[in-house]
Design brief:
The protein is of the alpha+beta class and 469 residues long. The protein is built from 13 helices and twelve strands. Bound molecules: adenosine-5'-diphosphate (ADP) and magnesium ion.
Length: 469
């Protein structure tokens, strides 16, 4: 650009010189023919010098003017060109100065608008790209894209997390060379072969566990039927499958638990009807068994109803302020008979008579009935059950401690599962349903409290409930 400017200036100056020399020559000729003949030599020299100096001054003025004019026109062009060069380099923040609203000013402002548009375009593009990236990375599923030649060209964070792989081992490699699971490779091959969507549930052994996935394989076909590759999406449904299993187990357990008392009630009534009822002693014995089994059936159904109610979405506690000391005293009075029948000492220890907490009276009663009844059930005769109430200021703890059979360490997490019993035969004879602790856990969680267990096999167990005040 400066070259152009220099050339322009040189051309202008040359033009001016030519014009001036031309004018000079013309004037010289005129002077010569009309005036110079009649003048003396001294005057001739004076005229020659003054004409030359005058012309020189005019020349300088014209050059200065020319310089000003050219720089006024070329400077904005130079600046606009520099901005255009910056734009081609990708610097969309470059702007040129616009002072006047003439042609060069218009050029400058047009370039500025262009730069601004480009900047906005790039910003929107970057934003869209970021959004897409965030979406792909955090879509909560594993994602792989395999190009039309079979090379893996994209894997997301979900996929990396599921398969614990590093992107460098996978990216730009042939899928059948790096994907270890034949089920997945087969699925990809199927999409390539059929060019149709495939949706399959597959079980993949991963490290120490087996995981269930729903895998969607989609052929990606661009405009003009150009084959772009295969997209695979992995949804981990292991938790769902586990829940499904829990539900199946639950149904099986419930049916079994219901079947046992019903079978026994049916069997004894049939025997009675077959003639055994004529013997008074047998009649009494069988009827009391039938009554016991009906009771069991009733508690089982009640527990099941309770559990299902607690698991409903809108389950709510009737929260009110209550005195935990009074509540525990009532529960102990209720269970005293059961304890006395086994000669078990059942006692409440508390420093204060007033320990106020917020909770649901009936539900908390249910919790402590279950815990204390368990303590009595799983403690041999002549043992003892201590209920200790401790007020810790911010929270309250109730310890239900027995000198009973105890629980093995590895069994402790399992006893809160529905129908789980350490010793199946003995527990069933004790009249429990196997749902007691599951209900306790539910209720304590609904109260935002905590439950913990300490136990030593053969020494006894301690269930600790912590409630917020
Ligand atoms: N205090 C305890 N001492 C020893 N084992 C216990 C105690 N409480 C509960 N358990 C064990 O936990 C299991 C589950 O208890 P629970 O849910 O109340 O069912 P259930 O009492 O009907 O068997 C019991 O079968 C028993 O094996
Ligand atoms: Mg129980």
């Amino acid at each position: 650009m400066t070259k152009f400017r220099t050339k322009l200036i040189i051309a202008l100056i040359t033009l001016i010189i030519f014009v001036l020399v031309g004018i000079g020559l013309l004037l010289g000729q005129l002077f010569k023919s009309y005036f110079l003949e009649s003048l003396n030599d001294h005057l001739k020299i004076v005229i020659l010098w003054s004409t030359s100096i005058g012309l020189g001054i005019v020349l300088i003025i014209i050059i200065l003017l020319g310089l000003r004019i050219t720089s006024r026109y070329t400077k904005p062009i130079v600046e606009a060109t520099n901005v255009a060069i910056e734009l081609t380099k990708g610097n969309y923040r470059a702007r040129t100065k616009v002072d006047k609203l003439d042609e060069t000013g218009m050029l400058g402002s047009a370039i500025n608008r262009l730069a601004q548009n480009l900047q906005e375009l790039v910003k929107t593009q970057e934003m869209q790209q970021d959004r897409l990236k965030v979406l792909i990375e955090n879509m909560g599923a594993g994602l792989v894209f395999i190009d039309s030649r079979g090379y893996i060209s994209l894997i997301n964070k979900g996929f990396i997390d599921i398969f614990q792989v590093s992107p460098t081992d996978y990216l730009y490699k042939l899928y059948y060379e790096v994907i270890e699971q034949p089920e997945i490779s087969d699925l990809i091959a199927e999409v390539f072969r059929t060019e149709k969507k495939v949706n399959k549930q597959i079980l993949i052994p991963l490290f120490i566990e087996r995981k269930y996935f729903v895998v969607y394989g989609v052929p990606i076909i661009g405009t003009n039927n150009v084959w772009k590759g295969v997209l695979l999406v992995f949804h981990d449904i292991t938790e769902l499958k586990k829940l499904e299993q829990v539900r199946k187990d639950f149904v099986a357990n419930v049916s079994h638990e219901l079947k046992t008392p019903v079978t026994s009630i049916k069997g004894f009534s049939e025997t009675l009807l077959d003639g055994a009822m004529h013997n008074k002693e047998t009649l009494e014995a069988f009827l009391s068994i039938i009554l016991k089994e009906s009771d069991r059936l009733q508690t089982l159904i009640q527990d099941l109803l309770d559990l299902s109610k607690m698991e409903q979405q809108g389950f709510q506690l009737a929260i009110q302020e209550l005195n935990l000391h009074t509540l525990l005293e009532e529960v102990i009075t209720l269970l005293n008979g059961k304890a006395q029948a086994k000669n078990i000492r059942l006692e409440l220890y508390s420093k204060q008579q007033h320990v106020l907490v917020k909770g649901d009276v009936d539900r908390l009663k249910q919790v402590f009935i279950n815990l204390i009844a368990n303590a009595i059930t799983y403690t041999p005769p002549e043992g003892e059950v201590k209920v200790v109430l401790l007020d810790h200021g911010k929270n309250v703890r109730v310890h239900v401690k027995d000198s009973g059979v105890g629980i093995k360490k590895e069994e402790i997490p399992r006893i809160f599962e529905r129908f789980y019993r350490v010793d199946r035969a003995r527990s069933r004879n004790s009249g429990g349903t196997g749902l007691g602790l599951a209900i306790v856990k539910h209720l304590i969680e609904a109260h935002h409290g905590q439950i913990s267990v300490r136990s030593e096999l053969g020494e006894g167990s301690e269930f600790i409930i912590e409630l917020k005040k």
